[in-house]
Amino acid sequence: MTTHHRVTVGPGEDGTRLDQALTALTDDFTRSRIRKWIDLGLVRRNGAPARRSERVVEGDVLEMDVPEVIPSEAKAEDIPLSILYEDEHLLVLNKAAGLVIHPAAGNPEGTLVNALLHHCKDLSGIGGVERPGIVHRLDKDTTGALIVAKNDRAHLGLSLAFSRREIEKTYLAVCYGIPKPPEGVIEAPIGRHPNDRKKMAVREDGSPARTLYSTNEVFEGTALLSCRLITGRTHQIRVHCAHIGHALIGDSTYSGRQWKNLMNPVAGRACRDFPRQALHAWRLEFTHPVTGEIIAIEAPIPDDISGLIEKLKL
């Protein structure tokens, strides 16, 4: 079953891309959903099938056949969540290490989606399939602050804010070596690794990627960094830090055996045995998509990273 929508392009959308115009003219749908519907042939411009890159002009008639949201097969599971902030529109949780975001092959249950289906009864749907309000992601073994939308209005506002880079995301990372200079900008495009599709890499034909970093604390042969994402590419901090010679401790994908180079045997063992990348989404600051309030949330540093830092200080 589908629902038919019909809008007319006004002067404010004249000359904009089709997907941008439809996002502006419809209050209930995210741009990512609209793009998928365009690609599926569900959008027409003046009666003809449309492409997302087309530029619309004032007076154009745009029509969409919106598919019914189909519940996902994911089951609600009573999995404990650490909630940092919650209201009727959204929540911010402190994601634990090892928690996968979406059910997939190898992880059909025990995911954040399963937990959210239990915690929230009515959640935002995307692309015709119910996916509970996920507007951004953290890697499986990255901890920290994650925003979840609880309704379509919040989902649309948050998605737009992320696409416009209006949400400030700051991470804490423990790396090998001591960066010089102690603060700066890493600007290097990121794309799929040419030989390993599960990895990302800095490559000339990649997507633009920009990370601001500063050194919070220096240890013997290691450092605690604060990293602020300007763009949001897959594995961005991990790839950028490795690119400048300061791979994250515990990162089995992008670091090697740098722990062998540490003079302190306690620190060396701590780095060797650390079971995940030492990366934590520490702080989020954003404008609430419904109330307009400025929300600033900090996720406490997890015990494993705190313990690692203590051993690096010895």
Explained architecture:
By secondary structure, the chain is α+β, with helices and mostly antiparallel strands. It has three domains: 2-67, Roll (Structural Genomics Hypothetical 15.5 Kd Protein In mrcA-pckA Intergenic Region, Chain A), CATH 3.10.290.10; 83-163, Pseudouridine synthase (2-Layer Sandwich); 168-313, Pseudouridine synthase, CATH 3.30.2350. The chain is 21% helix and 29% strand. It has seven helices and 17 strands. The chain has helices spanning 18-25, 31-39, 112-119, 152-163, 236-243, 265-273, 303-313, and strands at residues 2-8, 43-45, 48-49, 61-67, 83-86, 90-95, 125-126, 129-130, 143-149, 168-176, 183-187, 190-192, 200-202, 210-218, 222-229, 279-287, 294-298. The strands form four sheets. Strands 5, 6, 9, 10, 11, 14, 15, 16 and 17 form a nine-stranded mixed β-sheet that branches. It has a four-stranded antiparallel β-sheet with strand order 1-4-2-3. A hairpin with a 3-residue loop joins strand 14 and strand 15 (222-229). Helix 1 (18-25) packs across helix 2 and helix 6 packs antiparallel against helix 7. The chain is globular. The model has no long low-confidence stretch (mean pLDDT 89).
